[in-house]
Amino acid sequence: MIEKDTYNTITKATEPVLHKDKNSKFFGYAFPLTNEEDIKLHLEALKKQHHSARHWCYAYQIGTETISYRANDDGEPSNSAGMPIYGQIQSYNLTNVLIVVVRYFGGVKLGVGGLISAYRTAAQLSLDAATIIEKTINIDYLITFGYKNMNTVMRVIKEKSLNIINQKLELDCNIIISVRKSEAQSVFQIFDRLYEIKIKKL
C-alpha cells in the first residue's frame, strides 16, 4: 500500500459569497491556513468588517499527518453552524483551511434544520469560489559536506530533481532539501551511503 503523501487545500482567500434565507444574510469566507494563530486574525478582521452582524461561526482543519480541527457555533444552537461548515471542509477533502460564515439575523427564526442548511450552503458556496490545489507532503533534510564533495551532492540533487530550500556553500557546505514523503526514505539512503556526507532530518 502506497502511503498518501498529498493533500488538498485552497490557494488564496476567497471573495465573500452571500446566501440569503428568510431575510437572514449569511456571508461565507474561505481562507488558507499555515498555522492556528492566523484564525484569530481572520476572525478579528471579519468582526471589525461586520461589526453589526449577530454570529461569526467557523470551522477549520489544519495539518497533514496530524490533523487538528474545530467547529464553533458562536451562539447558534449546538451543532447547527460549526459542524455543517466543517462537513463541507470534509466533503471537499481539504486541510489547512478556515471557513467563516457571518450571519446577519433577519428577524425570522430559521429553526435548527434551517440553520444547518443555511450554514452548510454558505460554506459550500465559499469553497465553490475557491481555487483548490493538490500539494505534496514533504520532508526536509539537512545535508552537510566538505566543499570537495560538492559535485557528488549536486549530481544526486540533479538526478533526483530535488528541491533546494536553502544552501550555504563555503569550505563546509550545508544544503537543505525538501523531498516528497514517498521518496524521502530512498533519498535519505542515497546520501547516507555517500562517504564524508552527512544527512539528517529537520
From TrEMBL:
GO terms for cellular component: cytoplasm. Residues 22-125 form the Impact N-terminal domain. GO terms for biological process: regulation of translational initiation. InterPro entries: Impact, Impact_N, Impact_N_sf, Ribosomal_Su5_D2-typ_SF. Pfam families: Impact_N. Belongs to the IMPACT family. This is Uncharacterized protein, YigZ family. It comes from Algibacter pectinivorans.
